[in-house]
Design goal:
Layout (H helix, E strand, L loop, with lengths): L1 H14 L3 H28 L3 H19 L10 H22 L7 E3 L1 H9 L2 E15 L2 E7 L4 E3 L12 E3 L1 E3 L5 E2 L2 H6 L1 H5 L2 E3 L5 E4 L4 E7 L1 E3 L6 E3 L5 E5 L4 E5 L5 E6 L2 E2 L6 H8 L1 H42 L1
Parallel strand pairs: 1-16, 5-8
Antiparallel strand pairs: 2-3, 2-7, 2-10, 3-4, 4-6, 8-9, 9-10, 11-12, 12-13, 13-14, 14-15
Length: 323
């Protein structure tokens, strides 16, 4: 009997972990959760998703407090419900109310910085376009450009070790090597798009298609204030109109004129969306019609429900009498 009890005691003591080990595992898990969610929060905040970053901070801090403190041990069982309520009820409600106070729409989804960067990436063709060919030679690849005056070619280079972004074009009478297929051009499209070719007259041309190089310039250029843009094609001055969330041309007096430039960005507009319900006929008429129908339907449902139950009870009474 004693041997059996002794063996059970040894089994129990051997299977249980020391309190120090349990504490280490507990705090290691909590630290891992904090680090992972902290990193995710920084990423979301850096990408402009402030609301989701704040949600992650709240849920993580609440979890660390509840599972890390002995005083809140009983709350561990209700934390999933609290987290679900915050995640699926409170946060969507607050987030929707916040969006209703902005101009967020299909055309206004970006932040100001992102909308500005999209505009700065736009280009236009400022000169003639010239056909080009990719040749494979013993010394590497070479780009050949045909202009109305002459044929130009670059020195041989390797795509894998290409470091210069600007290559000189020199006049040539003939080209040695094998002309590459369109498939090879497509495979090296990213590298070719990053190249600038310099003609004899110092004109810079860039890739404008799978078979063309052309003089391409940025459509917009940033001014020193970090907000004003100049249209390099038309010379117009554009400034951000924070009332509508778009870039728009301005006149000499600084007044906004002409059409807005997409894409737009998100700005605060207060209660304008709610005021449109009563001022925009396209929204007001359907809204009022649907609202009246909802009230009428609910009133009729309540009014006729006693008649339905009264009729059902009569049928039940008749059935019992006949029985």
């Amino acid at each position: 009997m004693q041997s059996v009890q002794g063996s059970q005691a040894m089994t129990t003591s051997g299977s249980s972990l020391p309190s120090s080990t349990k504490a280490f595992i507990k705090w290691a898990l909590l630290a891992s959760v904090a680090i992972i969610n902290g990193y995710a929060t920084v990423l979301m905040y850096s990408r402009g998703e402030t609301a989701f970053a704040l949600l992650t901070v709240v849920l993580t801090a609440l979890a660390l407090y509840i599972f890390g403190s002995k005083k809140t041990y009983a709350h561990r069982y209700i934390y999933p419900g609290i987290a679900g309520m915050i995640l699926f009820i409170i946060f969507p409600l607050v987030y929707t109310v916040g969006l209703s106070l902005t101009n967020y729409s299909a055309t206004n989804q970006l932040s100001f910085e992102r909308a500005q960067s999209v505009l700065l990436e736009r280009t236009f063709q400022s000169g003639d376009s010239y056909p080009f060919y990719l040749y494979q030679t013993d010394k590497g690849a070479s780009l050949v450009v045909d202009t109305p005056d002459a044929r130009y070619a670059t020195k041989p280079f390797e795509f894998a070790t290409l470091s210069a972004q600007t290559l000189e074009l020199t006049p040539v009478e003939s080209v040695s090597g094998e002309k590459a297929t369109l498939r090879a051009v497509i495979q090296n499209r990213d590298a070719l798009s990053a190249l600038e070719l310099k003609l004899a007259d110092d004109q810079i041309i860039r890739m404008s298609g799978l078979r063309k190089f052309a003089a391409i310039q940025p459509l917009y250029s940033m001014q020193n204030d970090g907000r004003t843009l100049i249209n390099n094609q038309t010379g117009d001055t554009l400034k951000p109109n924070d009332e509508v969330g778009y870039y728009q041309a301005v006149n000499d007096a600084g007044e906004f004129v002409g059409d807005t430039i997409s894409p737009g960005y998100v700005v605060q507009i207060g209660t304008d969306n709610f005021e449109r319900v009563w001022t925009d006929d396209g929204i007001k008429e359907p809204f009022i019609g649907i609202f009246i129908w909802t009230i009428v339907f609910s009133v009729l449902s309540v009014a006729f429900s006693p008649l339905y139950w009264f009729d059902s009870c009569q049928h039940c009474s008749v059935g019992r009498v006949e029985g």
